[in-house]
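Question (not urgent): is this output format expected?
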Amino acid sequence: MDFKLSGKVAIVTGASRGIGRAIAQTLAAEGMKLTLAARSKDQLDELAKSLKTDCLVQSVDLRTRDAAPAVIEATMRKFGAIDVLVNNAGATKRGDFFELTDDDWEDGFALKFFGAMRLCRASWTHLMASRGAIVNIIGIGGRTGSAEFTIGGSVNAAFRLFTKALADRGVKDGVRVNAINPGFIKTERLETRLKTFAEEHKIPLSQAETQLAKATGVARFGEPSEVANAVAFLASPVSAYCHGSLLDIDGGQTRTL
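Got this back:
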């Protein structure tokens, strides 16, 4: 399907691996020019070389206040426009609530929430000019509370509300804002979770995936490309009537309305 994205410019954060890498590969295949942002310069350089499109590598720590404006300014200098912003960067610490520190909480919000918020703010006028789109990668943890995921759940819930609020402003300004909530996706983060699950249940790692999938009520775990394809759809004019949408891609794990 032609998503009508060829020649347009996208910023993808957290692009060095996992879901972000798959998003970059998918958007490049659609003919988009890309700004790739993450902390891992070597991984970003390797990714940029592998993509058959014009790329700008931005090795930055989006937890710092000046990083987001710098990424936007560099993108405008390089490409002269911004059509799509994909906020994918961010990981939060799991664990016992009473063992999580203030620093853990501040770090959880610093990258995933505040980093994305600053990028939205810094890019907004450019997205208005291009009648562009924002796609936030959040997570289903913001819909169902979990004792071991207090930081991530809180960040995700705030990010969901932020998406809706910014979409409300976007109606006036001509910027579409949507979000995707992935469930368990086969990334390095899931591999770490599977190792922990195997240790806790004293089972071989080879059995952990099947048993964890069964425990969460899904038939299988998702592929990064499945999230990336949805990003391409929400970023494109093909989804022009999607605005403020919160799309779960979780294999049916979330059963609440």
